[in-house]
UniProtKB/TrEMBL annotation:
A GO BP annotation: malate metabolic process
Domain annotation Lactate/malate dehydrogenase C-terminal: ranges: 127-212
Name listed for the protein in its UniProt record: Malate dehydrogenase, cytoplasmic
Alphabetical keyword list: NAD, Oxidoreductase
Lineage of origin: Eukaryota, Metazoa, Ecdysozoa, Nematoda, Chromadorea
Species annotation: Ascaris suum (Pig roundworm)
InterPro entries: Lactate/malate_DH_C, Lactate/malate_DH_N, Lactate_DH/Glyco_Ohase_4_C, Malate_DH_type2, NAD(P)-bd_dom_sf
Family: Belongs to the LDH/MDH superfamily. MDH type 2 family.
UniProt keyword Oxidoreductase present: yes
All copies of domain Lactate/malate dehydrogenase N-terminal, residue ranges: 8-122
Pfam families (alphabetical): Ldh_1_C, Ldh_1_N
């Protein structure tokens, strides 16, 4: 058996983290034959809930899950980490704009970033995105610009507007849907979306670890 990968998921007791942990350990990210030591980090008041999540994962009897560590301090959580899914933060609530959420979470990610530098392996991979242009913030002011996108349609690589064939939809309903989707989910669910974010994080690190070919 190869050396286990040590992966951390922060905020494991709340929506994003809880949606993420099972996907990470059951093989969706690193492969079904890769041994995993999962470290879950959350704040001290959630220690009992964190233990409950740990028991749930143990009861799944996953063959590649070597160990589960429930931690409420950053030194324990980040020591010798290989991969980090940093999704633990203050959740977005109804009526909050993305800028309000970012302002509230600066201290959390600053502290976690320092812990990564101090305790994790130098080769640690973090589930983030680099060198990608985003038009606006992730809020109702963002602009999903399809003019640069390309689509493989019928074996041919086409410009997205040509493939869609409906500029009015791209500049109207499509734009509005993307901008307001997060707020609509909060309105319906009374919580911010979690499953799609967890899947996106898993897909990203999976392709990073396994490759895309």
């Amino acid at each position: 058996m190869s050396e286990p990968i040590r992966a951390i998921v922060s905020g494991a007791t709340v929506s994003n983290g809880y949606s993420l942990v099972l996907q990470v350990v059951k093989g969706n990210v690193f492969g079904h034959s890769t041994p995993i030591v999962l470290v879950m980090l959350d704040i001290p008041p959630t220690a009992a809930v964190l233990e409950g999540v740990k028991f749930e994962l143990q009861d799944c009897a996953l063959p590649n899950l070597i160990d589960v560590v429930a931690a409420t301090d950053e030194k324990t959580a980040f020591t010798n980490i290989d991969y980090a899914f940093l999704v633990g933060a203050m959740p977005r609530k109804q009526g909050m704009e993305r800028k309000d959420l970012l302002a509230a979470n600066v201290k959390i990610f600053k502290s976690q970033g320092k812990a990564l530098a101090d305790y994790a392996k130098p080769t640690t991979k973090i589930g983030d995105v680099k060198d990608v242009i985003i038009w606006g913030n992730h809020s109702n002011t963002q602009y999903p610009d399809a003019s640069h996108a390309k689509v493989n349609k019928g074996g041919k690589l086409l410009e997205a507007p040509a493939a869609v064939g409906d500029d009015a939809w791209l500049k109207g309903e499509f734009l509005s849907t993307v901008q307001k989707r997060g707020a609509i989910i909060i309105e319906k669910r009374k919580l911010s979306s979690a499953m799609s974010a967890a899947k996106a994080a898993c897909d990203h690190v999976h392709d990073w670890f396994v490759g895309t070919k």
